Amino acid sequence: xxxxxxxxxxxxxxxxxxxxxxxxxxxxxxxxxxxxxxxxxxxxxxxxxxxxxxxxxxxxxxxxxxxxxxxxxxxxxxxxxxxxxxxxxxxxxxxxxxxxxxxxxxxxxxxxxxxxxxxxxxxxxxxxxxxxxxxxxxxxxxxxxxxxxxxxxxxxxxxxxxxxxxxxxxxxxxxxxxxxxxxxxxxxxxxxxxxxxxxxxxxxxxxxxxxxxxxxxxxxxxxxxxxxxxxxxxxxxxxxxxxxxxxxxxxxxxxxxxxxxxxxxxxxxxxxxxxxxxxxxxxxxxxxxxxxxxxxxxxxxxxxxxxxxxxxxxxxxxxxxxxxxxxxxxxxxxxxxxxxxxxxxxxxxxxxxxxxxxxxxxxxxxxxxxxxxxxxxxxxxxxxxxxxxxxxxxxxxxxxxxxxxxxxxxxxxxxxxxxxxxxxxxxxxxxxxxxxxxxxxxxxxxxxxxxxxxxxxxxxxxxxxxxxxxxxxxxxxxxxxxxxxxxxxxxxxxxxxxxxxxxxxxxxxxxxxxxxxxxxxxxxxxxxxxxxxxxxxxxxxxxxxxxxxxxxxxxxxxxxxxxxxxxxxxxxxxxxxxxxxxxxxxxxxxxxxxxxxxxxxxxxxxxxxxx
Length: 611
Known about the structure:
Blueprint: H1 2-18, E1 20-21, E2 26-30, E3 34-36, E4 40-48, E5 53-56, E6 63-80, E7 83-98, E8 102-106, E9 110-113, E10 116-119, E11 123-128, H2 134-140, E12 147-148, E13 154-155, E14 160-166, E15 177-185, E16 188-196, E17 203-208, E18 217-221, E19 224-238, E20 242-246, E21 250-265, E22 268-281, E23 285-289, E24 300-313, E25 317-319, E26 324-334, E27 350-352, E28 356-364, E29 367-380, E30 384-388, E31 391-397, E32 402-408, E33 411-416, H3 423-434, H4 461-489, H5 491-515, H6 519-538, H7 547-556, H8 561-579, H9 585-610
Parallel strand pairs: 1-7, 3-11, 24-31, 25-33
Antiparallel strand pairs: 2-4, 4-7, 5-9, 6-7, 8-11, 9-10, 12-13, 14-15, 15-19, 16-21, 17-19, 18-19, 20-23, 21-22, 24-26, 26-29, 27-29, 28-29, 30-33, 31-32
Helix pairs in contact: 5-6, 5-9, 6-8, 6-9, 7-8, 8-9
């Protein structure tokens, strides 16, 4: 028994191992991109999915190592679709302190894994100077007012604010530039409230996607270090020259602020924090948009940026009535959506189609970058030698401050004679043969039709019928509309006419419950169908409807007692079956068929009585 147990245990281990997926070994370094001089920060090296040895850190003379390395391990495992994925990691952590301000590089570290050397990535770290004195801070704030809440808790204009930052203050018309709304804060943000960004009148707007897991970054502004986060980044293209204003925007935020009160806890004295709500406003902007130079070439395509152009043609030797496709690919960065497609002048004997345009663009901080592909299709209808003239594409380069022209070379085409059996080709060729001047027309063949010089249309039979027939149709439509309006006004009549349709709809729902073998809902729908049918047909409200007045009304309308009794029997059966033990499917089928048959027979009898 012990051997059998060991065998099954080994078998289970093998099965578990077969479903596992081996993971890749990585060795990465991580640290904040920006730190403050004299303040501590954490530098970590993480080795995943393997254990290493001989960890070596490169020399970092610009930083002081306060503590480390401290190793720590972690392990995670998950199973998806029967495959088990596990990941283990070992982290080597240092506590560092920057000695001076500036931008520094931490070189890669090294570690050995299974006899192989692994090298981490290097890191770029910017060291900011410490905050200036409080007096300097207050002068840098520009005298903005403070908002007070909860006693002494305050959020000053220097503690948190939003800046609207433009990448260029004096762009050219149609030149792209960015506006970034950036939050600066020294406080903890609790949540956001109402956000109202300004409108961008006079600009074409493209939103730049921000990372969903955006991390706060340190940035120095007016002699103070702030944690910053970009709230919105927008790419703008000015549509006119001159001064264009971007008004203020506003944003409500709640911050966690020290209240000035302290309490004693198990861990010592701690300051009480309170939530303070503050409305932050963005600074208005004034953009000076420069006009484009006046010497615009005729081939200027409303394009501003940097572009290149490639051209191609599917074939220069085809037969008549075979399509020719010329392709232009304009690539680069700028106002790609607003450029005007170059025009290609095809010969007169070509049937030209509208070009098709496909854009593959990405929104970047410098403009829309990507490729604009334009396909021009034309069909030559007559053989011969033709030339497609060269095509020019002119754009304005804001970096060089001048217009640049790209050229597609001319294309020599040799068109052979097309299929003589093609009716389209023959028709077009014949027309070319006679196309000499505008006053020459095709000869008409066939027997001519003559009109009498004494016959006039005015006063003829057709002339008067043209008046009488529309008038008679209008009168007929008026009579039908009046009749329909009277019938719609008669609610009882409309209910009577629609009684059968309403009952059929309910019986369809009952049939669905019958197929699902849902007894309770099946009998409910049958009862609703019968009671609703009699309510509509006899013009009696459901509240006043009963078995007795149903029999009386049916008898008064000339319906036989046998048919009326059939309805009463169905009602009794359904009422009993709702609370009785489960009925067989055959019994439910019978009730359904009897109900449909009884309603159909009732409709036939009532029609005969009316006729």
